[in-house]
Design brief:
0% strand, 132 residues, mainly alpha
Length: 132
Amino acid sequence: MDTVEEVNNNETNTQSNDQIDNILIDIKKLIGLLEEDDSFDVDVLININNAIDTLWELGVINKPYNRVQNDTTWTQIFGNECSQLDMIKTYIYLKTKLIFDPPLNASLLESLRENIRETEYRLNISYDPEKL
């Protein structure tokens, strides 16, 4: 039988894993929003879904997916075996950042756009090597 402490630790680990896997929370942290601040959640979610639509058009996502909501996890959209998940997370972050909070400096803006183009290219190639 588990002790109360073991049960509490397991619950904490489960909550932590869900929070780590949560798309909205991850992207909010990357663009500099506090997890607790939900005033921009709709705006961020719209941009996340827009980026995922582009990934679908690139062939990174082969199946129809449900729209990302407040509690949607990376695993729910991309599965457990996604070999390019870090690059996908980076891409979604960059696209969301570009629309939600673009840099005012023209050099930084162009750098952000170039990173997006490079990541799109790399994802495109990794999911369809014949395009080389």
